[in-house]
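WARN retry 2 of 3 for item q-0093 after timeout on previous attempt; input resubmitted unchanged.
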Amino acid sequence: MLPVVPPFLVGMAAAPLVKRVAKPLVRGVIKTSVGLTLEIRRAVIEAGEDIQSLTAEVAAEELARSARTHGAKVDGEVMAHGATV
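OK item q-0093 returned
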């Protein structure tokens, strides 16, 4: 018959081994998570900048198109009524 070893003794013997294995593993997971978070944040910022530049381009095109359809000229040219812009 095998002697019964209390579970806490097994835990005390295994704790240093688990600590040596788990600490680098947890550190790697945290380091990877932080790196992914920074990359995602950078990608979101770049996407926001792209959307802002596209919005500015479309707004400028729409203003120019609206000015042309209403008889106004852009960049200091003479309007339909004779006044300058």
